[in-house]
TrEMBL record:
It comes from Senegalia massiliensis. This is Ion-translocating oxidoreductase complex subunit C. It is a peripheral membrane protein. Residues 358-388, 398-427 form the 4Fe-4S ferredoxin-type domain. Belongs to the 4Fe4S bacterial-type ferredoxin family. RnfC subfamily. Its cofactor is [4Fe-4S] cluster. Signal peptide: none annotated. The lineage of its organism: Bacteria, Bacillati, Bacillota, Clostridia, Eubacteriales. It is an enzyme of class 7 (translocase). [4Fe-4S] cluster 2 binds at residues 378, 407, 410, 413. SUPFAM superfamilies: alpha-helical ferredoxin (SSF46548), Nqo1 FMN-binding domain-like (SSF142019).
Amino acid sequence: MNLQSQTFKGGIHPPHFKKSTENLTIERAKTPDMVYIPMQQHIGAPCEAIVKVGDSVKIGQKVGEAKAFVSAPIHSSVSGKVKKIQKLDTPTGNATTIIIESDGKNEIHESVVSKGKIDDLTKEEIVEVIKEAGITGLGGAGFPTHVKLSPPPEKKVDTVILNGAECEPYLTADHRLMVEQPEMIIKGLKAIMKAVEVTKGFIGIEDNKPDAIKVMMEASKNEKNIQVVPVKTKYPQGDEKRLINSITKREVPNGGLPMDVGVVVNNVGTAHAIGNAFETGMPLVERVATITGSGINNPRNLIIKIGTPFKDIIDECGGFKDNPGKIIMGGPMMGIAQHSIEVPTIKGTSGILVLDKEEAKIPDPDPCIRCAKCVDICPVNLQPLFISKLSLKRMYEEAGSYNALSCIECGSCSFVCPSKRPLLQSIRVAKREILSNRKKS
Ligand code: SF4
Ligand code: SF4
């Protein structure tokens, strides 16, 4: 493969807004007085609490057991005492939450020991370590990683891709992790490659991060099966199907999965967490996140303990500049708007973005002028104007016949629309209604 940046069809070029944090070294956030650890932080079945009020816990101790295959156990991020177990709001909904008061000692649980050399372990043992470490996709989607690494026998996987694109504006956590801890990422990649028995691993990085490309190339120079691939800086380059297409030229079919074309994709942060789980034995109890935006006083990249309230983190970053216009978990394109800062950090918290009132303003839409810009840029080749129009008329099944369910909700159509039509919002509604009607019938 040549080293010219690879890319996919469609996509947009939103402003990056990464300047304020892309050169900031990752720092460790303070241990909070209290952590709020939800039992649902991933796609799949929630966990069951296995501690009770009054129990003492340590860092890395399992506190939530996964009772289904598509689920991932949850561990304490502090040492201290369980104060309450109750339903609370989280960034993605409402979930049973274990509230632990930290004793400030940060004592580590006895189960946290190195898992040995990856070369000495079988693929089944590797998947088991990843499962028991509670590792889920750290790019935002939160899919349990051991499930991704257990494809059915009829799916022949021959390629692993690490996603270091970080195409969302504002976010720089993955960028900094690649620059600062490349060896741990490579270690995680090697574990993933062994788990799915492949000998070809790629690391796709957008070409607006030349320092990360250089460092990752240097760290992998003795690994003949691993190649760093610069990809064009274009949104949504980090969508896994776009990344597969950019790097391998394979097309994942509509409604299909990466494994249908022989590929497994994981985020670089996920690979880092896997590397760490083998080296130190520490399960996923903390993560790096970018705290940024026009409405925050001191943007930073922080290692945050899972369960730390957004409020504590925002305070540690100097608080709000003014009354914020919008708070988002993740980036501005695919992140989730938050109504409260009392919610806790979860495994999928890649960032906390605070926009000021001006930036958060939603413009009044004008009528569609049929310019077809939304069609030209849709990376999935949809016709957003028609799906949206049908959705706004509540003709959801008809919207479905325009492949509404294939929309990856990247928001590119809304971004380019000169009439500021509510394309993404209306397509989301259509998808929700189609799925709920299918469940009923
Ligand atoms: S229709 Fe969906 S996939 Fe296409 S540009 Fe809009 S949000 Fe992205
Ligand atoms: S970009 Fe906006 S104005 Fe242009 S066709 Fe699409 S919906 Fe209509």
